[in-house]
Design a protein that fits this description.
- The protein is an alpha/beta fold and about 230 residues long.
- It has a domain of about 150 residues: P-loop containing nucleotide triphosphate hydrolases (Rossmann fold).
- The protein is about 30% helix and about 25% strand.
- It is built from eight helices and ten strands.
- A six-stranded mixed β-sheet has the order 6-7-8-3-9-10, with helices on both faces. It has a four-stranded antiparallel β-sheet with strand order 2-1-4-5, covered by helices on one side.
- Helix 3 packs across helix 4 and helix 3 runs parallel beside helix 6.
- The chain is globular.
- The two termini are about 30 Å apart.
- It comes from Holdemania filiformis.
- GO terms for molecular function: ATP binding; ATP hydrolysis activity; transmembrane transporter activity.
- One of its GO terms (cellular component) is plasma membrane.
- Keywords: ATP-binding, Nucleotide-binding, Transport.
- Belongs to the ABC transporter superfamily.
Length: about 230
């Protein structure tokens, strides 16, 4: 589904040139839950931004469903193919949870049902938000509840790719486990490709595939734990 071919990315810091990605290639398949790990400063968030079309590589290619994501296709890709879950949730605080999810349904060209509110309630219920909480302002909800709503919002446009940047970084252990369960369910039951950048070994241990970004390259890790310097 999503393929990277010889991506290169870097920046200049004073007189020094730092390479983040160096001829980086990888293929992400349908219906799998991936975690990307790596040392601090290795470029994990930069890579996720490139995958999501929020930043561009200096050279190389990103392919989605057999088509290269070029500059003139970025708008369509971002609007219709991907959902993003941020560590800080990025919800609209003066709206309720249900209103945040409904709003996402208006920002896509994908076919949406007429009964949007009922579908939004159903999505929220799938991630553990009952109606009474869905109708509360975002500011009245806990961090874990806000992250669940952020996941439902990412799904609301009926996309196939879900990207998440440190989505459990602000959550306690019990809530982290619940978010992991949701990501696994999205991949296994709904066929979504879920790609999560994380420092958490707990999150990575429950993913289908653990990928290490180090020295500008992506490398699949074995199922057994390997030492990673966070």
């Amino acid at each position: 589904m999503l393929k990277l071919v010889n991506l290169n990315y870097g920046y200049t810091d004073g007189a020094n040139r730092r390479s983040i990605l160096q001829d980086c290639s990888y293929t992400f398949e349908d219906g799998r839950f991936y975690t990307i790990l790596g040392p601090s400063g290795s470029g994990k968030t930069t890579l996720l931004s490139i995958l999501a079309g929020l930043d561009s590589a200096e050279s190389g290619e990103v392919w989605y469903n057999g088509e290269q994501i070029t500059a003139n296709r970025l708008y369509h890709y971002r609007r219709n193919q991907i959902g993003i879950v941020f560590q800080q949730y990025n919800l609209i605080n003066y709206l309720t949870g249900i209103e945040n999810v409904e709003l996402a349904m208006t920002e896509t060209d994908n076919a949406m049902p007429k009964n949007r509110r009922e579908i939004a309630y159903a999505l929220l219920e799938k991630v553990g938000i009952v109606r009474s909480k869905a109708e509360r302002p975002i500011s009245k909800l806990s961090g874990g509840e806000q992250q669940r709503i952020a996941i439902a919002r990412a799904l609301a446009a009926n996309v196939d790719l879900i990207f998440a940047d440190e989505p459990t970084g602000n959550l306690d252990t019990a809530t982290e486990q619940e978010i992991i369960r949701i990501f696994r369910q999205l991949a296994e039951e709904f066929g979504k490709t879920v790609i999560v950048v994380t420092h958490s070994e707990t999150v990575s241990q429950f993913s289908d595939e653990r990928v290490l970004l180090e020295n500008g390259q992506l490398r699949r890790l074995s199922p057994a734990a390997e030492a990673i310097t966070a």
